């Protein structure tokens, strides 16, 4: 049975076009792009083509793209570089709803003596702007605020935040791992200094990412060793995956407008039907300002894990809370920060769509979900 895969914020399928373009670099062209001989050295061109394609998706210059091993590395590098390049400043601003790639790195720096402000959000998951303005002082080394939330899809006002941070001369990093390819981003118009990208959220393989670093931003490498990536990120390049990342960015750029419309209309239909057919269901997050592919719905008084297991029996893949925190029954830090009641947090399910979903997938979930919720609710001690 082909799964109905609605967990694309956790990871995505590799696009066939991406795989086709990668395969020669896993099979025949296995040289090292830094080698002097022609066999390896010729691969440098392919590496630079991928850099151009990633840059083109976000309106950057190719020289502003550094390839990394994943979104987590891009986030860690951006924050560490900002801290290392501004040694006189000891304050980091971030938010309480970031992905662990930023959250846990910030907590690590807090343990090392940095002051970290974790900005709150409101019930809709929107950033508390008053707290943001209040947190800005002369000691801020970096502000790291996410573009789009992985659990709810809620978008932060990056342009507005960036304009203020630019005025104050504060380095601004945004974790755009969930936003890339799902919403248009143009760094020519967007006042960000660094921006994190991950391949596997965008139909490229796992284990490849990129960091955009605006020209003129002081950069201090996080991974030290050889002089790959112009000395900004050591380690022999994962060429096949980088080629895949380049190809996927090219596809995203070409098809973005029609894809956003198609995916959003499927997501909206799924959400509307589930809310209508399942009593005591509610959407978490600002529905007017979020990614087109994500919906996070709480089915109150039901355990999310039980819903997932029942969906799984029908070949439907979704997630409760963030993929990275599944496996533990800790309630989602994002929904807690939004002050979602515990009974709703525990019954929250995230559906995240992609280019490969069909209307048939949505029909199947709309059909299977209401009886699952009714049955589980009847078993629940809180059932009503
Ligand atoms: N940032 C966000 C918002 C994410 O959703 C994720 C992955 O779920 C990451 C960072 C980490 O990316 P990667 O899995 O490539 O390390």
Cα-based radius of gyration, to the nearest Å: 21 Å
What is the overall silhouette? globular
Helix and strand content put the structural class at: alpha/beta
Strand order of the biggest β-sheet: 2-8-7-6-5-3-4
Instruction: Please provide the count of β strands.
Output: 12
Count of separate DSSP helical elements: 13
In the predicted model, the low-confidence regions spanning at least 5 consecutive residues are 322-326
**What is the CA-CA span between the terminal residues?**
34 Å
Instruction: State the share of residues found in helices, binned by percent.
Output: 40-55%
Query: What is the arithmetic mean of pLDDT?
Result: 95
Element-level helix/strand string: EHHHEHEHEHEHEEEHHEEHEHHEH
Q: Major beta sheet, specifics?
A: 7 strands, mixed
Strand content: 5-15%
Describe what you observe in this structure.
This protein is of the alpha/beta class. It contains 13 helices and 12 strands. It has helices at 16-27, 38-41, 43-58, 71-85, 100-111, 129-135, 158-167, 228-231, 239-277, 304-313, 333-337, 342-345, 359-379; strands spanning 4-5, 65-68, 91-95, 115-119, 140-144, 172-175, 194-198, 209-213, 281-283, 294-299, 316-317, 348-352. It has a 7-stranded mixed sheet with strand order 2-8-7-6-5-3-4, with helices on both faces. The protein has a 3-stranded antiparallel sheet with strand order 9-10-12. Strands 1-11 form a two-stranded parallel sheet. Helix 10 (304-313) crosses helix 13. Residues 322-326 have low confidence and may be disordered. Bound molecules: pyridoxal-5'-phosphate. Residues 70-72, 75, 99, 101, 146, 150, 175, 177-178, 198, 200, 209, 323-324 line the site of pyridoxal-5'-phosphate.
């Amino acid at each position: 049975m082909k799964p109905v895969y609605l967990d694309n914020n956790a990871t995505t399928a590799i696009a066939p076009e991406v795989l086709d373009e990668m395969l020669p670099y896993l099979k025949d062209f296995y040289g090292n792009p830094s080698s002097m001989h022609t066999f390896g050295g010729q691969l440098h061109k392919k590496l630079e083509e991928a850099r151009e394609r990633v840059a083109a998706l976000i309106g950057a210059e190719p020289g502003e793209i550094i390839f990394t091993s994943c979104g987590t590395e891009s986030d860690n590098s951006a924050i560490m570089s900002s801290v290392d390049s501004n040694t006189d400043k000891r304050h980091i601003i971030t938010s309480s709803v970031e992905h662990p790639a930023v959250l846990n790195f910030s907590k690590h720096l807090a343990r090392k003596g940095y002051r970290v402000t974790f900005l709150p959000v409101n019930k809709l998951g929107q950033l508390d702007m008053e707290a943001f303005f209040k947190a800005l002082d002369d000691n801020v080394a970096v502000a790291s605020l996410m573009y789009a939330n992985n659990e709810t899809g809620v978008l932060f006002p990056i342009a507005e935040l960036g304009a203020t941070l630019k005025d104050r001369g504060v380095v601004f990093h945004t974790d755009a791992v969930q936003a890339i390819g799902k919403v248009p981003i143009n760094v020519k118009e967007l006042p960000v200094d660094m921006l994190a990208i991950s391949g596997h959220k965008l139909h490229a393989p796992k284990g490849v990412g990129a960091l955009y670093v605006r020209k003129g931003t002081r950069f201090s490498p996080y991974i030290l060793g050889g002089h790959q990536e112009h000395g900004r990120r050591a380690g022999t390049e994962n060429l096949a995956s980088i080629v895949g990342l380049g190809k996927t960015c090219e596809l995203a750029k070409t098809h973005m407008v029609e894809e956003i419309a198609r995916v959003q209309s499927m997501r909206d239909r799924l959400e509307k039907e589930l809310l209508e057919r399942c009593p005591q269901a509610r959407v978490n997050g600002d529905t007017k300002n979020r990614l087109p592919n994500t919906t996070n719905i709480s089915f109150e008084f039901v355990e999310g894990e039980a819903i997932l297991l029942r969906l799984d029996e029908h070949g439907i893949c979704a997630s409760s809370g963030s993929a990275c925190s599944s496996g533990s029954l800790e309630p989602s830090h994002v929904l807690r920060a939004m002050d979602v009641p515990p009974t709703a947090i525990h019954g929250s399910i995230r559906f995240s769509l992609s280019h490969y979903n069909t209307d048939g997938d949505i029909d199947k979930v709309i059909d299977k979900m209401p009886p699952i919720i009714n049955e589980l609710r009847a078993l629940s001690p809180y059932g009503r």
